[in-house]
Amino acid sequence: MVLGRNSACWCGSGKKYKNCHEAFDEKISEYKRLGYKVPGHELIKTPEQIEKIKESAVINRACLDYVGAHIGPGVSTQEIDDWVAKITRDMGGIPAPLDYEGFPKSVCTSVNSQVCHGIPSDEDILEEGDIINVDCSTILDGYFSDSSRMYMIGDVTPDAKQLVEDVHEAVKVGLDAVKPWRTLGDMGSAINNFCKSKGYSVVREIGGHGVGLEFHEEPWVSYVSEPGKEMLMVPGLMFTIEPMVNMGKADIFIDADNDWTVYTDDDSLSAQWEVQLVVTETGYELICW
Ligand code: MF3
Ligand code: CO
Question: At what angle are helices 158-176 and 184-197 packed, to 10 degrees?
Fold first, then answer.
């Protein structure tokens, strides 16, 4: 589509294109000519959309806060599912995982060597020493938020605690590399280098994603990528940083019984934290955590 310079900008601001996103589009085209992967307009969130997505994130954060205050030994992963489902609906939202590509529950609960997509169950009772990722995603009025946190159940081994804390730090290292007009590869390689320096392995096959108007949008986000590679991070691009980090080897397998739950191949512990952010003119703004 050719947009006249005096037409209304594609972003919906109501301003003339020449006074709004024209320079932005020219800059993107220049990067594209240089061979960079660049996002289309549909991936650039408007200020109005960002506000709606933040409202969704209020619910998502409330769920994870509640989990943090009530989780402990003796709690089943099904109870966590019940809490998340109730809080989400009480606040007017819909749990995004439920029925997503057949996922049977409202939240993912991944314990110890489970890497991700653990399915809540009455039979899985948390015990002292477990580490668990609770991955929560909310739809509010069609807008999506997505974040996950780790919880340590009672006293955990020093190694397990270190892993949980280091992976939290890895997300911060990734966030520090989020700068407009740099690439996702700059961010992903920063995370990979940090995790390798601690002796861990980052899962290669499963990554993060664009999010906001859909649960999973472009781009797919790797945390083992290379500097300068992958999509250009431009202001308005929204995605998750959610590295899955194994204490042992990077290899994983999927539970053949449910086709969902991912485990470390060597049975080592795995940890993950997930945040959702939008790229800004100066860096990033956290949307959900
Ligand atoms: N919340 C996960 C993510 O970060 C997606 C899980 S898919 C589900 O992308 F169906 F299991 F919920
Ligand atoms: Co996600």
Answer: 150
Please name the residue whose Cα sits nearest to atom 8 of ligand 1.
Answer: 97
Which of ligand 1's atoms lies nearest the C-alpha of 107?
12
Kindly report the pTM of this predicted structure.
0.97
**Where would I find the beta strands (DSSP E) of the chain?**
94-95, 108-111, 114-116, 131-140, 143-152, 182-183, 201-202, 208-210, 217-221, 232-233, 238-241, 244-246, 252-254, 262-264, 270-272, 275-279, 284-288
42 phi and psi angles, rounded to 5 deg: -65, -15
Tokens encoding 16:
């003339």
Q: How far apart are CA 166 and CA 127, in angstroms?
A: 22
- Ligand 1 pocket: which of 108, 149, 274 to mutate (most atoms <8 Å of CB)? 108
Task: Give the pairing type, strands 262-264 and 114-116.
Answer: antiparallel
pLDDT in tens, 162-201: 999 999 999 999 999 999 999 999 999 999 999 999 999 9
10 Å CB burial of residue 25 (0-12, 13-18, 19+) is: middle
